[in-house]
């Protein structure tokens, strides 16, 4: 949404108009204004805290919003979302449009949740503390909340980010019910305590463990941000030193992630493989710049110097514990299944799986990127070369995973070697005898 297309702006305007309709009539006369104000104030305070900490917590206010949906009429519950959403932290521009979008989106989601909850008799069950029956309307309200958020998110992805319609909603709904159900349970506990003789003060105590969880989540994200900063610094240093491969590390990380996902690896391992791809060439910091930028063929001595970069890289990252198996990929990504690779000539399954993933991703990006000594190959030609070398140089399983991922998602790297967006129609086929530098062959840089 950085440069928001006109059709996306029209879509946002339509969602905002629908949210305004949901707020009319303004909170019903029987809605307790003090409750609306208190819940809206809690949401706004949580968003301001997240904003001052410069972090965006997923679902910071969801327990409070869902408690409002369980306690208040639909229009009043929807009003609770507005102050916090309009104050929410936004990382990208346009800030105002994103905040208005979030406000409208949450307004509609909370209104839908409150409406479903009311239609199923949820308010009476909350007052009577009628368990487990109270869980039925509350669960239906949570599903309505998730469904509205999913539909709206998918629509903006299609219109603003140009995600294909067939993929826009895939996986969005399946990922949201579990975490939001936890928020919904906390919201239901708040609502039941609120309607009990203990009153609103007891209900607010439910938020204490949630605050501890948010704090831990924030600490995790700060640590993760520090990890990312460390990796970015190393990669930027490599890009400055080897200008011809600018963006190569990020693209290898992207391709490694595609392979890992296609192989069904869990999210944590997918992220580790992305780190492995990004850092695979960090050892080039120890290679003389004149060799990295040399236009002509390498001498045997120069090639031996370049072949030291995996060991240099491993020495640099082996003390970074959070990288896990990515460290092995940095050391072994130039090994070959037939034992003719370097630095140790490992064969077959003795090569770590992470290194076999990165080897395929590295060669694929090298072949599809323009370098100083040759133009990029088309994606189809690069895939054909990987398949030709599968079993001798590359793990056929990794090659097959990349081919399937490319068939499903295509290849749209953010940055090419010359700093411009990549596009299949813009590349020119290269020759097949350049394995020393394009990643297919023993002396690959």
UniProtKB/TrEMBL annotation:
Q: Which Gene3D superfamilies match?
A: Hypothetical protein af1432 (1.10.3210.10)
What are the record keywords, sorted? Membrane, Transmembrane, Transmembrane helix
Identify the SUPFAM superfamilies for this entry. HD-domain/PDEase-like (SSF109604)
Residue stretches spanning the membrane: 62-88, 138-160, 172-194, 200-218
A Pfam family of the record is: HD_5
Residue span, HD-GYP domain: 223-418
Region described as Disordered: 413-445
Q: Which InterPro entries does this chain map to? A: Cyclic_di-GMP/3'3'-cGAMP_PDE (IPR052020), HD/PDEase_dom (IPR003607), HD_domain (IPR006674), HD_GYP_dom (IPR037522), HDIG_dom (IPR006675)
Task: Provide the HD domain boundaries.
Answer: 245-367
Is Cell division a UniProt keyword of this protein? no
Per the record, where are the segments of Basic and acidic residues compositional bias? 434-445
Known NCBIfam families for this protein?
HDIG
Record-given protein name: Metal-dependent phosphohydrolase
Native species of this protein?
Streptomyces ambofaciens
């Amino acid at each position: 949404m950085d440069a928001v297309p006109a059709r996306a702006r029209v879509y946002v305007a339509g969602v905002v108009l629908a949210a305004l309709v949901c707020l009319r009539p303004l909170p019903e006369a029987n809605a307790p204004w003090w409750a609306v104000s208190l819940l809206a104030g809690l949401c706004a305070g949580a968003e301001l805290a997240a904003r001052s900490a410069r972090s965006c917590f997923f679902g910071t206010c969801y327990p409070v919003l869902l408690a409002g949906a369980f306690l208040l009429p639909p229009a009043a519950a929807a009003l609770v979302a507005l102050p916090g959403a309009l104050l929410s932290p936004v990382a990208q521009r346009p800030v105002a449009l994103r905040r208005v979008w979030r406000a409208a989106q949450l307004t509609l989601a909370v209104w839908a949740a409150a409406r479903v909850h009311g239609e199923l008799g949820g308010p009476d069950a909350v007052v009577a503390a009628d368990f487990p029956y109270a869980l039925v309307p509350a669960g239906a309200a949570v599903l309505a909340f998730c469904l509205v958020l999913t539909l709206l998110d998918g629509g903006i992805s299609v219109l603003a980010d140009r995600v294909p319609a067939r993929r826009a909603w895939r996986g969005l709904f399946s990922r949201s019910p579990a975490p939001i159900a936890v928020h919904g349970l906390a919201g239901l506990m708040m609502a039941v305590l609120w309607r009990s003789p203990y009153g609103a003060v007891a209900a607010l105590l439910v938020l204490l463990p949630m605050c501890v969880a948010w704090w831990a989540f924030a600490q995790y994200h700060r640590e993760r941000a520090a990890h990312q900063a460390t990796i970015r610094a190393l990669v930027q240093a490599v890009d400055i030193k080897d200008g011809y491969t600018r963006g190569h590390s990020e693209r290898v990380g992207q391709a490694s992630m595609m392979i890992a996902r296609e192989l069904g690896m869990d999210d944590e391992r997918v992220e580790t493989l992305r780190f492995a791809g990004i850092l695979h060439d960090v050892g080039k910091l120890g290679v003389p710049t004149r060799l990295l930028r040399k236009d002509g063929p390498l001498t045997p001595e120069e090639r031996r110097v370049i072949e030291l970069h995996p060991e240099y890289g491993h020495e640099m990252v082996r003390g970074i514990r959070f990288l896990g198996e990515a460290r092995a990929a940095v050391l072994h990504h130039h090994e070959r299944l037939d034992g003719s690779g370097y630095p140790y000539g490992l064969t077959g399954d003795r090569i770590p799986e992470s290194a076999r993933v990165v080897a395929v991703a590295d060669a694929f990006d090298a072949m599809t990127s323009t370098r100083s000594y040759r133009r990029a190959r088309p994606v189809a030609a690069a895939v054909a070369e990987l398949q030709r070398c599968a079993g001798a140089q590359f793990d056929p399983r990794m090659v097959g995973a990349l081919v399937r991922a490319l068939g499903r998602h295509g290849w749209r790297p953010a940055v090419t070697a010359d700093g411009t967006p990549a596009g299949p129609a813009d590349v020119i086929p290269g020759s097949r005898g350049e394995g020393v530098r394009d990643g297919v062959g023993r002396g690959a840089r």
